What does this fold into?
Amino acid sequence: MLYQTAAQLRGAFDALADTGKFPDATIEGHLAAFDAIAVDYRGVAFATRSQVDLWVLRECDTSLRLSWPKVRAVTSVTVTSPAVGGTEQVLAATEYTVDELAGVLYCPAGFAAGDRVAVAYTHGLGYRVLADGVTASGDATVTSATGAFTDADLGTPVAGTGIPSGSAIVAINSATSVELSAAATATGTGVTLTLADPLLVQAAREYVRSSSLSGRSGAPRDIISQSVEGLTTRFSTPDKANRRPTGYLDVDRLLNSLPDYRAPF
It folds into this structure.
């Protein structure tokens, strides 16, 4: 799980301790809602996801914009061309290149009008939680048997017991070992490592707290007050266009601090 579990959130907020009022399903539902809002608002998947994009080309082209940026790997590119009797061809990896950040696939040989193209790929920032971290005091090397580290993880923030605040991955040693930007301050095994922007994790926590409590108290949601020439305008509903995707002040402030990956069309 990318975000904290229901049990961890209850531990962080005493107000959520009553499992009768706040069962796991309710908290997990709020987490799912937050993830959907955050992904839509920032234009990027935070965890790794799989996707298949399909096109039927109206004209010849040498590039295709994928639905998502931050491509981690292209699994296959399949072309079905009516010009050759509907024969299906799987392109070799040498026949195309990918702009991973922007999410654009380039094929120098080009696609013909009428071609049906299917691109299978994984995308996202690859944020995740590992439960088997191993650290050594004074050493910047961190290992995890389940890490599955790749070059796409470079720059990813890392948090955990004995990991200095602000640490990030600066080198990939192997699929199970990375170098951090700062040495660990404690030795440990079975260390929980959170590979994610801490502001995103904090925003998720605040969203769950706010959504859970506002849903039961009957009190109004957090509001924005704006006074112009003696008139006060109050906002209590989400407004994505005005940088309030959730309507909760603290959550929106945190989400607005994250990079925006939405393509400028």
